[in-house]
Amino acid sequence: MLKSKTFVKKTRSGGVLKIVREHYLRDDIWCGCEICSECKDESPVLQRDACIESSLCTFPHYLIPDTNVVLHQIDILEDPLIRNVIILQTVLQEVRHRSAPVYKRIKDAIHDKEKHFYTFTNEHHRETFVEREQGESANDRNDRAIRVAAKWYSEHLSKSARGAETKVVLLTNDRANKEKAEQSGVIAYRCEEYIKSLIGNPELVDRLALTSDDQNEISGSKLLFPEHLPLSRIQVGIKSGAYLQGSFRANTDNYLEATVFIHGEGDKTTEVLIQGLQNLNRAVHQDVVAVELFPKERWVTPSSVVLQDDTPKDEDTEEEEAEKKLESPVLDITMLKPTGRVVGIIKRNWRPFCGMLNQSQIKEATRHLFTPADRRIPRIRIETRQASALVGQRIIGHFVRNLGGAGDKETETEVLLLEHDVPHQPFSQAVLSFLPKMPWSITEEDLKVRADLRHLCVCSVDPPGCTDIDDALHCRELDNGNLEVGVHIADVSHFIRPGTALDQEAANRGTTVYLCGKRIDMVPELLSSNLCSLRSNVERLAFSCIWEMNHNAEIINAHFTKSVINSKASLTYAEAQMRIDDSNMNDDVTKSLRGLNKLARILKARRIEKGALTLSSPEVRFHIDSETHDPIDLQTKELKDTNSMVEEFMLLANISVAQKIYDEFSECALLRKHPAPPPSNYDILIKASKSKGLVIRTDSAKSLADSLNVATVENFSYFNTLLRILATRCMMQAVYFCSGMDSDFHHYGLASPIYTHFTSPIRRYSDIIVHRLLAVAVHADSTYPELMDKHKLSALCNNLNYRHKMAQYAQRASVAFHTQLFFKNRGNLNEEGFILFVRKNAIIILIPKFGLEGTVFFENKDKPGPRLSFDSEGPTLTVEDQHTFHIFDKVKVTISLDASNIQHQKIRMALLEPVIPGVSVQLPEPEPEAKKPKLDR
Amino acid sequence: MAGLELLSDQGYRLDGRKAPELRKVQARMGVFAQADGSAYIEQGNTKALAVVYGPHEIRGSRSKSLHDRAVINCQYSMATFSTAERKRRPHGDRKSSEMSLHLKQTFEAAVLTQLYPRSQIDIYVKILQSDGGNYSACVNAATLALVDAGIPMRDYVCACTAGFVEDTPLADLCHAEESGGGTTLSLALLPRSENIALVQMDARLHQDHLPALMEAAIEACKGLSKVLDSVVRQHLQEVSVQTQD
Predict the structure, then answer these.
(1) Packing angle between helix A175-183 and helix A138-159, nearest 10 degrees?
(2) Looking at the Swiss-Prot or TrEMBL record, what is one Pfam family this protein matches (chain A) (predicted)?
(3) How many domains would you assign to chain B?
(4) Which of A22, A110, A364 sits opposite B15 (nearest CB)?
(5) Tens of pLDDT along A605-650?
(6) Chain A hits for B4, Cβ within 8 Å
(7) What residue numbers bound the domain in which B197 lies?
(8) I need a surface site. Which of A62, A73, A726, B214 has the fewest CB within 10 A?
(9) Reported pTM
């Protein structure tokens, strides 16, 4: 055994580092041929009569492909016809370096015993090792190594007695390489040449990948994206108007499309559409980017194709196809949107992302693709050595932390909290230090400055299981015949003093987040469930809003005061309803409830008269198993009379307080507005109702409410609800704002000229600020500088709006996840649903029973889709010229959980009715009993 | 870039060795005349120099002396030029101190210290070039140096590393293999009695794999002992030829 050394230099991460490695050369590496008499190989791979009938090579021969042939013609090499191939180690290493998928395929071929592929470790063979010469490129050296190995083989085989007629054939597409090989006496052919010469296998020629001779020198780095411009040029461009600056929003449904919101003067924002990977130019969701507008003739319409990047592969061929799909024919000039491309990134908005790892096909690879849980974030390449341990686990960021197994309930909850940026860590010691010391009781001083309302018959009405009770009500008849109505709100601002760590934490959290089976508190539990919670039969501090009303629910006077109350009963909605309905009960609490209920009806009627909207969204509640915490059943939320009773008085309190604080502090009142949606938002609603022959007027909230009320279709009771669901989708988001920074206060949905949030200080920070403002207004508390600073207040509003939006998303995601869990335990279900939207290649279906929305795709990646024709006017979609889907159509679908992609497990729906051959699915056979989950019993 | 393939399908390692094969070992004894014993060893690209002084009287504080046996004092250091990036501190860092301690423990098990009560034996080892298996190179070099110094030992102490890649134990890892992830086990063996003087493993390994890994390391140590033995015999021959003249 001969040993020898060679020195290899290598650079790493910028610095030049000399790396010395030993390289042993051996003379016990066998050629692997059956005919060879010299080598002592025990189980030779290459067959004796290696016959592929070829008109060029009439003799038995072995093939030696070079790197480029393997890379490009792997389809051919995989054909069962091609056997007895020698893969050189040099080639294998180069392939491994260049393309992981091809490497995987060639390895599979080598492992296939039928193929008789032999790997010759030429780099460690004493006679075939080639040292790089001065001035020789690595590629040239490898080519030479391949030639030397081929030459060695031909000489080696000719030495053996029976091998004289067996030869080796070098396959190369490189002209220079071929010439040199021929000079040294090796038979060399171009791949094309050789394949064409094969007798009786003309179909292989079709599989030849076309590569011109000149392309075989693979350029090391293909320029994938246009370069980002430097910041200085972007700034010049923005000044001159050549570029526009805006925030980048990726499209959730289509990873090749994004919108950039350009913030213009004032409130004006324009949207610029970006399509295609090249134009997106590596921008990531929420980056601030500079875009260049295309000339008008290149403007396009947003595609209504739903495109999901579900099958991650290393190859980018798929993406090219997908891009082609995007180029939809322009139907309507008016539909064109301003289109542009990203030229530079002004500010990255990267944060830790949650997601999971796709393992690379090469086992030892340290770089892997990471698929974030948020669809709008592209896949990220990360470097880790622990890949095998991390596969199937949820991780965060450039591998900051392992969150746990995917699909695990705890982990998924953690993921969705992180993804929606919900602060959910336990409260810090600093925060907890500001909590009152237990046992806590109301002191004499408290009583001195507060109105003592302990004698009043106050009660609270809440959903079952509610521990953070922040409102209570009372109603009594006054001596003058009028009614006194009081709304008592937990006095959280008494405990959370401005400027403390507790206050800052609450301001940051902004809101309590309710997930299925979990609550992320805004304030520590001691406050939220105990000291602030207006529980029955304990003395609590409150902020009371007391009106004197006549029996027509007209307010005669209102006053606000800090108070001490003692709630007589905490009821659920159902209990309260029962008391009201039960004529045998005549205690104070019940009388008070009846009075409230009566007034609430009048108030509601008056509000609707003014044009308040009654909208609808399918809401579901899960019944959670008490031990496993798995959802076992779900039901849609029911609304009782008492719900709206409480709601009515809360609205009244909010409006009264809004008016009061705005009167006192016109510059720095924290209010809430709901802007009227732009008319274009209603397009879908109008189109949809037109298809049913109805007219929806949208010129004002009042007319919208009225036309929604009369919009009914016979024999289709759910239609009105569907329409209201659609109308909800048209609405804008309600937002907090500071009165000094805005002029439009109108609340569209409630049809109120002014509105704020006052009634839930335990779970909303905005209410705490409103409490403080009101306390100052009624001289119950002192003011502090930040409260009167409209800029600071405005910044706070922005945070609150953001937190509220995120909390809402997190809530929805939590419901979606629990829905999945629910269906996981159920297997396939067949349900009726209604078409909510019609898209170009899919229909979106709402299943009222579960409040579940899902998409039925008509196109499949693997097989050609059915003929589809989409009419954007209807909008309707005709499938196979047989059935036309309209919005609101009733369909029957089968629901199952698709767990093929662990990262995005989703509910899959497939069409059962109407039956369209080739599109709809058959009713699945009933599952065998054994498979049924135990829960079904 | 994909990571390195430590073991190819054909069973060859990065540098062309098969799984149980050692790197090339070259050694010389008596490289310095001043010291009582000295040796130089190359295991592949790992090169180590060992020097032995003693046994002599305790230097420094007398309190360290032991009444029934000799104190073994080891010092391990790495030349600043021994690694690809220049080292700042040649000795005294935590790794070196730990290594010194390990060497001390190894040789206290092998040297017949009770023959020299109240005295001290100094072993200084220096890594001149580092390419994996620093500990084992040091042990092997120190063994030769102790032999050169004529200090009685129970047996040669032979050390070797072994690692575990794709269910195959690899013997005598080079630097790329050590840093390529996976477990490294260092083992110092008294080959004739098969007593283990020291074994160290600082990564996780499934218990089922441990016997195979230990077996590989022991085999490698035995192979090394043959090489060391031939070096000693060769050296003795040379010396006896010289002294005869």
Answers:
(1) 40
(2) RNB
(3) 1
(4) A22
(5) 888 887 777 766 555 555 555 555 555 555 555 566 777 888 888 8
(6) 364
(7) 25-243
(8) B214
(9) 0.56
